[in-house]
Amino acid sequence: MLARRHALPGAIATPCLNAASPSFGSRYFRLPSSTRRSHNSAADNSRRIPEPPRRDLFGRVAIVTGAGSRGDELGVGRAVAMLLARDGAAVVCVDRNLGHAQRTVEMLRNHDTPQQQQKQPPRAIAVEADVTRDTDCAAAVSQALNAFGRVDVLVNSVGVLGPPGTAVEVECQEWARGMEINVTSMMLMARHSIPAMRKNQGSLASSRRAGQEDDGHSALCGSIVNIGSVAGLRGGTPSLLYPTSKGAVVNMTRAMAAHHGAEGIRVNCVCPGMLYTPMVCGANGMSPETREARRRRSLLRTEGNAWDCATAVRFLAGDEARWITGSILTVDAGATAAVSINLS
Ligand SMILES: NC(=O)c1ccc[n+]([C@@H]2O[C@H](COP(=O)([O-])OP(=O)(O)OC[C@H]3O[C@@H](n4cnc5c(N)ncnc54)[C@H](O)[C@@H]3O)[C@@H](O)[C@H]2O)c1
């Protein structure tokens, strides 16, 4: 399995690759004919440049946790589900609130998508699951497999602010529950999704054997994107639980990337800054003063929303990011790039 994978796109520039093989030939650009004439066939093949990776997600199946958000509002999970569906993925919208997950499915079906232009409605289901429960996570992955036959992408978006308080103030049971929601849930969803992702190697190999078009995804089995936070990279957050749990998500991402890279499973983390989402604005909304203060706490001095995070997730989920694993991508309008944002 390893040998086959290493002979695929990651090795394209090496002369030892058998680029004359029919399964590779169609995936290479050719240099201009004036350049080609000066080389023999083997050298010619070694100088072909590979096609760029595909940007769309057609044929891919994505599980997104925390895809419910609230009412018609836009949380990160909902925005991710909508963007992945828009790019062609079948999406499994997981949330402990089934009604909210179902609303996301309705919203992504009504969203203008390339499939709709082709008269194919986006494929999506809503699944009720508490991702802190092992059995619920197993059932969510089973439902994805039953509905769509495979799992390619897992986006772990569930996260809560958790209990307030410093080490001397925080309530211990609430601390444990917060760690379960923000950290353990991501391990559990990965535990059940990775075995399904491993099966993707075989399915892509057989589609090539059957002479179907090589989709350019062949080296990869799956992509996991964990949602961290800039609070997991820096101190300065009033509570202890949130930055501690998000710091754990950051390094869990690196550890998982190391464990599963050789299997062709990429694991990355997106760390958003202060987005305006239902989680932070709360049931009563946010005062204009607070909103303005958050906006100004970044280099770009603009307010971020869930789409800003979701576009980064979509990139990491797809094959344009096929050489990226173990990365921590900040999406924070530059808030963590400078020691001070008072530049003048
Ligand atoms: N909003 C921000 O400013 C911000 C900043 C940095 C990081 N983040 C992270 O982004 C992620 C999403 O945040 P958001 O602002 O979109 O939140 P959100 O509250 O809009 O969405 C969270 C979703 O998770 C669901 N959920 C909570 N616990 C669950 C459980 N046990 N099982 C299943 N579903 C559960 C909720 O029902 C909700 O739909 C979180 O991990 C959060 O920490 C957000």
Task: Describe the fold and architecture.
By secondary structure, the protein is an alpha/beta fold. The protein has two domains: 2-50, no CATH class; 61-331, NAD(P)-binding Rossmann-like Domain (Rossmann fold, 3-Layer(aba) Sandwich). It contains 14 helices and eleven strands. Helix 11 links the parallel strand 7 and strand 8. Helix 5 (76-86) runs parallel beside helix 6, helix 8 (134-148) runs parallel beside helix 9 and helix 9 (172-198) runs parallel beside helix 11. The chain is globular. Mean pLDDT is 84; it is low at 1-39 and 204-217. The structure holds nicotinamide-adenine-dinucleotide (NAD). Nicotinamide-adenine-dinucleotide is lined by residues 65-66, 68-69, 75-77, 95-97, 100, 129-132, 157-160, 181, 227, 229, 272, 274-275, 277-280, 306. InterPro entries: NAD(P)-bd_dom_sf, Sc_DH/Rdtase_CS, SDR_fam.
Order of helices and strands: HHEHHEEHEHHEHEHHEHEEHHEHE
- What is the C-alpha radius of gyration, as a whole number of Å? 22 Å
Query: How many strands appear in the DSSP assignment?
Result: 11
Task: Tally the helices.
Answer: 14
CATH topology of the largest domain: Rossmann fold
Architecture of the largest domain in CATH? 3-Layer(aba) Sandwich
Could you say which overall geometry the principal axes of the C-alpha atoms support? globular
Text of the CATH class of the largest domain: Alpha Beta
| Unique ligands | nicotinamide-adenine-dinucleotide
Strand order of the largest sheet: 5-4-3-6-7-8-11
Mean pLDDT: 84
SSE-based structural type? alpha/beta
**What is the helical fraction, as a range of percent?**
40-55%
Number of domains: 2
Largest sheet: 7 strands, parallel
- Output the CATH homologous superfamily of the largest domain: NAD(P)-binding Rossmann-like Domain
Percentage of residues in DSSP E strands: 5-15%
The stretches of 5 or more residues where confidence is low (pLDDT under 50) are 1-39, 204-217
Span of the ends, CA to CA: 56 Å
Region (Disordered): 32-54
Biased composition (Basic and acidic residues): 45-54
Keywords: NADP
InterPro entries: NAD(P)-bd_dom_sf (IPR036291), Sc_DH/Rdtase_CS (IPR020904), SDR_fam (IPR002347)
